[in-house]
Design goal:
This protein is mostly helical. The chain has 4 helices and 3 strands.
């Protein structure tokens, strides 16, 4: 991916077409990416730093786009985040509507 705009567009596209269960976006501006992605109704983007954040985000807001700064964590941790995201299945939250 070349830019944050491209990353956000691709993440939104994949989530809206139900092509994936979750998207991991690596960006130095992860808060901006999450904010822009959350403008789409079906997207619930969060900033994460570890697998505990991924689990909490899925449980609390049923997150489906996860943003991480590659400068804040080592490469092997990003790999572990990817594994955690693909392992968890999103489920509708009570009282929430898409």
């Amino acid at each position: 991916m070349g830019s944050n705009t491209e990353a956000v567009s691709l993440a939104i596209s994949q989530i809206c077409r139900a092509s994936v269960r979750g998207v991991l976006v690596c960006s130095d501006q992860c808060f901006e990416v999450a904010c822009r992605a959350n403008r789409q109704q079906k997207v619930r983007a969060v900033v994460v730093e570890d697998s505990n954040d991924v689990q909490a985000a899925r449980e609390q807001v049923n997150a489906n786009v996860f943003c991480v700064s590659p400068r804040s964590i080592p490469l092997y941790s990003i790999r572990n985040l990817f594994r955690e995201i693909t392992r968890l299945k999103p489920s509708p939250q009570e009282g929430w509507s898409d």
